[in-house]
Design a protein that fits this description.
The chain is built from 25 helices and 23 strands. It has about 700 residues and is an alpha/beta fold.
């Protein structure tokens, strides 16, 4: 049995590590003196300077004026040595030295410039305050400065968590380049919508109104204290000019593509890009291409794409992944929730902290929870290993109680960039519901095609055989279990078809799903046993589906008919389905009303997916995923579940760049299986035959 000391040591080590993290997070950051500020710094002491001890960017030490001041060691000696003839005007000369030094420093020290000259509106209201960088903002500025100091163009994609001010920080860094570094640096800012562009304009207006007018001029220039610092250009209201620095700032919106056209711009900030939607026939990437056209790949140019995540496989997601993979011109940055100061909750006592640490460590391998408003110990331990403090985890545990699922919490407070994208958007299916199916997914046992005597017509469903072949589109996890002469199983196999719109390689995929319902007899869920997936013409697909259904013991064949009816004339759709029905009798037909039967109207073959039936089958699929009511084999289907979203109009669709053909066969199949089909039943053929013989009609011929 381990000693008590052995048990306590890991907890002590954990607490010691937490102290180290807290010390690092709360390390002194004084942007005015420069102590603890970003970049490499040098401690400098000038006894008669207003700030006697400063920590200055090392780059400042190469400035001739700074070198001379450092050599002098004091303002007084500097004036005496380098400003001959000003001894009787010492105070005026000293002020000039300080002003020159400040101007040099603000050119090298963004945090100092922001903390001494830039006013912003604080979160929560109140008077404007000087802009002091928080921890994530310091990370962002370090990334910008790394590129600028290297003489490289600034190209960055920012994946944002909420409430750390990444957009504000980006905009003010651009303003720093414009107001301090080079004249004539025009900027273009494109927001998601009008409200966003109004906020950006208001921020810039507030900032420039309180910016000292003398700092817009060189030392010695004449100026008017009341001169305008922000002047409108034209009548659009979206372009303004700062005449003293000879630059324009244009603020457009993605919903009005014409406001986003580029021109003579050096700095471009694209805000909430993931939320941009196609408008007026223009895609987000086209808006971005137009806005960034002509920006050269050189120093003091800047293109920043920033956004909170809004699903996967949209333009922003693809560009972020390209940057992360090192395939893009852009660098990337993501800030997890636990690096944001807001998201910490101090413990009420040392005892409470120690007990929290002990629980965290002891449950680090636990995968169970007591309610859906908690996270398992394994997840919390992973956050600790990623760098979260105990105080941050304490906040997370308390905040998690607001939400009934991990996906809701992860959407608001992502821990890494994978969570940020995966749990964003208007997902139809919960991540945790989908992922419980992954364990049963596996490669197929065989890949090939099913063939008959012919490809269509009566001969197509005769002498059926499965042939393995490279490039085949039928994935088979379980071959058919044929009925025997003695017994048959009714309603065992179900085959469902999602018809593709078109058959070229760029079109949607067609899908044929085979479900085995035999496990239902023992109270177990049905299982996916085969699937055909590919591009094919609609009529050939119908015959292919008939072959698959016939091969699987003449299974009920359900063909989604909406695509047939909308992409062909109604007559052509009925013709294709009727041809199949003449050959294959077990074809699904919609239930007829009493009136239809009375009027002897023909059967309507196929499952028709409309706005009403789609809601029904998707709701049924949500239940099936939540309750784990079937067994999945194809992992690609899980990706379709995770990228299926609710539209603004209340409908459902796959995200751009994704498909839903596998999803729809499951949705239709599980609905038919649970709502319309009888339970599988084993029929003893010999017993049936004996029963039939017992009840044969006795005739005169039989007596003889």
């Amino acid at each position: 049995m381990p000693s008590k000391k052995t048990i306590e040591d890991p907890i002590k080590a954990l607490l010691a590590e937490n102290d180290r993290r807290q010390k690092a997070n709360n390390a002194l950051f004084n942007p005015v003196t420069g102590e603890g500020s970003i970049g490499e710094r040098v401690k400098v002491v000038i006894k008669d300077y207003p700030i006697p001890t400063q920590w200055l960017p090392v780059e400042m030490m190469d400035e001739p004026f700074v070198k001379r001041l450092m050599e002098a060691g004091s303002i007084k000696k500097f004036i005496k040595t380098f400003m001959v003839g000003t001894a009787d005007m010492y105070e005026e000369a000293a002020n000039k030295v300080v002003e020159m030094f400040v101007r040099i420093r603000i050119r090298h020290d963004f945090p100092f410039w922001a903390a001494t000259l830039i006013y912003i509106k604080p979160k929560g209201g109140g008077r404007d305050v000087l802009f002091r960088l928080n921890r994530p903002q310091r990370r962002l500025i370090e990334r910008f400065e790394r590129m600028r100091k290297a003489g490289k163009p600034i190209r960055l994609i920012i994946l944002k968590a909420r409430q750390w001010g990444g957009s504000t920080c980006t905009q003010l860094y651009m303003a720093w380049l414009q107001l301090v570094h080079l004249q004539g640096l025009n900027s273009l800012i494109i927001a998601h919508q009008t409200a966003g562009s109004d906020e950006i304009h208001d921020m810039f207006k507030r900032m420039i109104e309180k910016y000292p007018v003398e700092m817009l001029h060189e030392i010695g220039d004449t100026y008017d204290l009341n001169e305008q610092k922000l002047v409108g250009v034209g009548n659009s209201g979206i372009i303004h000019r700062v005449p003293q620095r000879n630059f324009k700032i244009k603020i457009g919106t993605a919903i009005r593509p014409k406001t986003c056209l580029g021109g003579d711009y050096n700095l471009v900030h694209l805000s909430e890009v993931a939320k941009w939607r196609e408008t007026e026939g223009t895609k987000p990437e086209e808006v971005i291409d137009n806005s960034c056209a002509g920006i050269p790949l050189k120093a003091y140019t800047m293109i920043v794409l920033e956004s909170t995540a809004d699903g996967v496989d949209n333009y922003f997601h693809k560009e972020y992944l390209s940057a992360k993979d090192g395939k893009s011109q852009f660098d990337y940055i993501f800030v997890p929730w636990y690096e944001i100061e807001l998201y910490e909750l101090p413990f009420e006592s040392k005892q409470q902290r120690d007990e929290f640490a002990s629980t965290l460590y002891n449950r680090r391998h636990s995968t169970t929870v007591d309610s859906n408003r908690e996270e398992p110990g394994t997840f919390l331990w992973r956050l600790w290993e990623q760098g979260a403090t105990l105080e941050a985890l304490n906040w997370y545990v308390q905040e998690r109680r607001k939400f009934g699922s991990h996906s809701q919490m992860a959407y608001m407070y992502p821990s890494d960039d994978v969570e940020a994208f995966l749990f964003s958007g208007r997902k139809v299916f919960a991540y945790e519901d989908v992922m419980q199916f992954k364990a049963a997914c596996r490669p197929p046992r065989a890949i090939g095609e099913i063939y008959g005597r012919a490809d269509e017509g009566e001969e197509a469903v005769k002498d059926l055989r499965f042939r393995k072949e490279e490039g085949g589109r039928l994935f088979m996890w379980s071959d058919v279990e044929k009925d025997t002469p003695d017994a048959t199983v009714t309603d065992r196999y179900l085959v469902v078809v999602d018809v593709a719109k078109g058959h070229t390689e760029h079109a949607d995929f067609a899908d044929i799903l085979v479900l085995d319902r035999l496990p239902i007899m023992d109270g177990d869920p049905p299982v996916v046993v085969a699937e055909w997936h590919g591009h094919i013409e609609m009529d050939r697909l119908a015959w292919k589906a008939a072959q698959v259904a016939a091969y699987y013991n003449n299974a009920l064949l359900v063909i989604e008919s909406n695509t047939l009816e909308t992409n062909n004339t109604k007559g052509e759709a009925e013709y294709i389905l009727t041809l199949v029905a003449d050959v294959y009798s077990n074809l699904y037909a919609r239930k007829q009303s009493a009136e239809d039967i009375q009027q002897k109207l023909p059967k309507k073959y196929g499952f028709h997916t409309n706005s009403l039936t789609k809601k029904v089958i998707i709701y049924n699929l949500q239940v099936a995923l939540r309750e784990h009511l079937y067994i999945e084999r194809e992992e690609e289907c899980l990706n379709e579940y995770l990228t299926y979203i609710e539209t603004d109009k209340g409908g459902y669709e796959a995200m751009e760049g994704h498909h839903d053909d596998r999803l729809m066969t499951r949705a239709i199949g599980l609905h038919i299986s649970t709502k319309e089909m009888d339970l599988p039943r084993i029929v003893d053929r010999q017993a049936d035959q004996k029963a039939n013989n017992r009840f044969q009609v006795v005739s005169e011929a039989s007596i003889l």
